[in-house]
Amino acid sequence: MKFTYKAYKELLMLLIDQGYKFCNYHDYQNYNMSVIIRHDIDMDIEKAVRMAQIEAEMGVTSTYFVLVTSNFYNIFSKENQAMLRKLHELGHEVGLHFDEAKYDGETDLVRAMEQEAVLLEQCIGRPVWSVSMHRPSKKTLEADYLIKGGQIVNSYGTEFFRNHKYVSDSRRNWRENVHAIIRSGKYARLHVLTHPFWYDVEEKTAREALKSFCESRTGTCYGWMQDNVRDLDEILRRSELCL
To answer: What's the CA dihedral at 30, 162, 68, 4 to 10 degrees?
Structure first.
C-alpha cells in the first residue's frame, strides 16, 4: 500500500465494501463487523487534520491520539489547539498518546496517564476516554493498565491488542498485507493504526518525508520569529536559510 491520501481513501473504501462498521473503543460491540481506526500524532498535527477531513468526507470516524509531551508541537498554542478541536468538529475522538520514556522507573505510570489526560482535556475542552502508548515497552504491553478506574480505555489492553486483529503502519511499514487481511473475511474485529505523518498527495520515501518535514519547520520557525522579533529581515533574511 502506498502512503498517499488516494491510497488511504482506497483502504477506507475497501473496509466499507467488506461490510465493516467504523467504531471507537466504546461502541464496537454493537456491530458484527467492526473496525477501529486509530491515528498516532507523533510529529505533525496538520497532517492529522488532513487525514481527519478525508475521513469526514467519506462518513468515517476514527480516534486521534495526541502526544502532550511531544518536542514537535505545543498543544496549547493557539493554532494547535484550534486544530485539535477541529478533529472533534469533524466527528472524531481525541485521545491521549502516552510516552512512558518520559518518566523514570519510580513513576506511577497510571497516575501519570491520568494527569496527562487532564491536561489534554483542558486543551480540547472535552473528556478524554482513551489512551494509546508511544513506543510501548514489553512491560507496558503486558500490563493491561486500568486507567481512571477503567473509564479511560487502554488501546493496548488485551481486548484491543490481542482479541482484535491488530495491524499497523509503524515506521512507514505495513508488516502485514492490510488489504489481504480485510478481504479475507477472517476477522470480525479489526484494529488499524496509522501515522498521518507519512501520508501525502504524492508518494514519498521515508527519507523524503523526513527531509520535507525538517525543511518546512525551518520556514515555520522563521514565521514565528517574525511575530516576535521586530524587523527580523534586517537581522536574518529568509533567503539565507536552507529552505
So the answer is: -80
Q: DSSP letter at 199? A: -
CB of 92 within 8 A of CB of 63? yes
CA distance 174 to 194: 9
Contact status, residue 52 vs residue 83, Cβ threshold 8 Å? no
Q: Which residues, including other chains, have CB under 8 Å from residue 155's CB and lie 6 or more apart? A: 25, 38, 63, 65, 95, 130, 131, 132, 133, 161, 191
Cα 137 from Cα 70, distance rounded (Å): 18
Instruction: Locate 157 and state its grid cell.
Output: 489492553
Q: Provide mean pLDDT across the span 112-139.
A: 96
pTM of the shown model: 0.94
Cα separation, 113 vs 206, whole angstroms: 30
User: How many Å apart are CA 228 and CA 95, to the nearest integer?
Assistant: 32
Q: Where are the beta strands (DSSP E) in 105-213?
A: 130-133, 153-154, 165-168, 189-194
Pairing of strands 165-168, 153-154: unpaired
- pLDDT score at 243: 62
CA distance 152 to 17: 31
User: Radius of gyration (Cα) for the chain, nearest Å?
Assistant: 19
Whole-angstrom Cα distance, residue 192 to residue 168? 6
